[in-house]
Structure formats: structure tokens, C-alpha cells
Design a protein that fits this description.
Largest sheet: 8 strands, parallel, barrel
Number of helices: 11
Structural class: alpha/beta
Order of helices and strands: HHEHHEHEHEHEHEHEEEHEH
Strand order of the largest sheet: 1-2-3-4-5-6-7-10
Radius of gyration: 20 Å
Oligomer: single chain
Shape: globular
CATH topology: TIM Barrel
């Protein structure tokens, strides 16, 4: 086939492309990442910087970073933009930031404040080039019901997603206790928000029982994921997480995106995380691109 014949085929291929949607193929795409929370102690003691985490990702050939913002020295351009540049020049994507929120606010003023908080972090995410923000639902206030609290969460997420969506940033509500303790509740809230800019930040270690079943229920709505070393069994007992089983579940759900190691054990993360990240990368490679039934 010569160059002229090849060029004749290009328009036809372009017309055919819409019929080859990945969503219909069932293929997953799994990418390993590092969650900055893994290094909370050295970051908090100023033994590490966010630049160091970028360099670690580069050294270990891990493509993505989920940057927990708790130890940012500030959110000015003088900090954010050089960090973004370093990541880009290192071939690393800062795809997500993780922030603190509490969406179970019974007063209008409280809900307004949470919306403004999220909007501020959307602006930070944009400056870092991140397309996702992990947020918390919070705890049900005393004297309130779960149904009332879930209504407040839905209201805040609807309002906040109008701002985030206009700037291309997805909000991931994490299963993190409180109002998000059960998969059924968090799925219900995300479905009620009914926005392409809101999903679940799925943490594999946070369900206190029946973890594998609850993870499976959340997977269709997952927009980001965090892998833990441990998981809770049906009785709520801690056990080593079966990463291969989890990755197969993600693949079966046609998940496409990052899953970040969030290390919470006692060993120094600077020593413990490199072999775990190698294991995570191997699992990602094993299942990425597969159609799992």
C-alpha cells in the first residue's frame, strides 16, 4: 500500500471511529499512582517535600500523583506553578488533589461555605493541571437523620459541580465513614446529584465490613481509586487486601483511570512504598486492556 492509498483510508476510518467506543468494548485501563498521604509523617516533619514525591514517581516509573493538600505551604502561584512544571518536565501527571470537606451542614450558611471551599480547591486543581478532587461527605450531625444529611450533601455537590464542571474538574466523593459509610448511601447520593462531574473516590480500605461486595457496588460510579494494604472481611476483621482480586473487579467494571497507593502502615513509607508500588504497577499491567467477564 502506498502513501496515496493510505490517505484514502483515513476519512473512512474517521467515520467509523464513533462506532468503536471504549465503553462498548469493555476494555479497562488501569494506571498506578502515588497518593501523597502515604508520606504524611515525613511531609509533616518537613523531611520530604512535594518535589520529592514527584522525583520518587519518576524514579519508580509511576505515571500519576494524587496530591493530598494538607501539607501545602500555601496555594499561591509561587508554589503551585513550579510544582506543576516540575511534574510535567518529569513526565508525571498530577491528576488529582485530595482535600478536607464536611458536606453534612444543616444550615444554609454552612452549605454555602462548603461550596465556596470546593470552588477554591477547583481553582487550585486547575493551576496544577489536575482533573479530579477527592472530597469527604462528613458525619451526620446530632439530632439529624441520614436522609436529611444526604440531602445536604446532594445539594452541595450539585452546586459545586456546576463550578467544577465549567472548569473541567471532577469531584470524587470518598467512602470515608460518616454519611459515606455504606455503598448504598454513597451510590444513592451520587446518582441523585446526576452530574457527569461527580462520582465516587473509591478507597478500598475504608469499608468496615463486606468490603469486596461494597467496592463492587461502587465501581460503576468510580472516578478515582485508592488502594490500601489491608481490607475488612465480611465480619469486619482486618486482612491483607487481595490486590489481584481487586484489580480483576476493576477490570470487570471497565474502570479506566488511576488507582493510587495510599500507605497507612507503620513502616517508614520511604522504605515500604517502593516494593508496594512495583506490585501495584504489575497488577495494573496484568489487567489493563483486558475484557473481563
Amino acid at each position: 500500500m502506498n502513501r496515496r492509498d493510505l490517505l484514502k483510508l483515513i476519512p473512512a476510518a474517521g467515520l467509523a471511529a464513533p462506532g468503536l467506543e471504549m465503553a462498548k468494548s469493555g476494555k479497562c485501563r488501569l494506571l498506578p499512582a502515588i497518593c501523597a498521604y502515604s508520606f504524611r509523617e515525613p511531609l509533616g516533619k518537613k523531611q520530604m517535600t512535594y518535589d520529592d514525591i514527584v522525583h520518587l514517581a519518576q524514579d519508580l516509573d509511576i505515571p500519576g500523583l494524587d496530591l493530598t493538600v494538607y501539607w501545602f505551604p500555601n496555594t499561591t502561584d509561587s508554589f503551585l506553578l513550579p510544582l506543576r512544571r516540575l511534574a510535567y518536565r518529569s513526565g508525571i501527571e498530577i491528576y488529582s488533589i485530595s482535600v478536607r470537606t464536611d458536606l453534612c451542614k444543616p444550615t444554609r450558611e454552612g452549605r454555602d461555605a462548603e461550596v465556596e471551599t470546593i470552588r477554591g480547591w477547583v481553582d487550585v486543581a486547575n493551576k496544577l493541571g489536575a482533573s479530579h478532587i477527592r472530597i469527604f461527605g462528613g458525619n451526620v450531625p446530632k439530632g439529624s437523620t441520614e436522609d436529611q444529611a444526604s440531602d445536604w450533601v446532594v445539594e452541595i455537590l450539585k452546586r459545586a459541580s456546576e463550578y467544577s464542571g465549567a472548569r473541567g474538574v471532577i469531584l470524587g466523593l470518598e467512602n470515608h465513614g460518616g454519611i459515606t459509610s455504606e455503598a448504598s448511601r454513597i451510590v444513592d447520593m451520587v446518582k441523585r446529584v446526576d452530574s457527569p462531574w461527580v462520582g465516587i473516590n473509591l478507597d478500598t480500605g475504608n469499608f468496615v465490613r463486606n468490603a469486596y461486595q461494597q467496592i463492587e457496588a461502587c465501581l460503576p460510579y468510580a472516578v478515582n481509586a485508592q488502594y490500601k494494604v489491608e481490607i475488612r472481611d465480611d465480619a469486619g476483621q482486618r486482612q491483607d487486601a487481595d490486590w489481584d482480586r481487586l484489580a480483576r473487579m476493576f477490570a470487570k467494571a471497565s474502570y479506566r483511570g488511576y488507582f493510587a497507593l495510599e500507605y497507612e502502615e507503620r513502616e517508614d513509607p520511604r522504605v515500604a512504598t517502593p516494593p508496594l508500588l512495583a506490585k501495584l504497577a504489575a497488577v495494573a499491567k496484568k489487567y489493563s486492556g483486558q475484557v473481563v467477564s
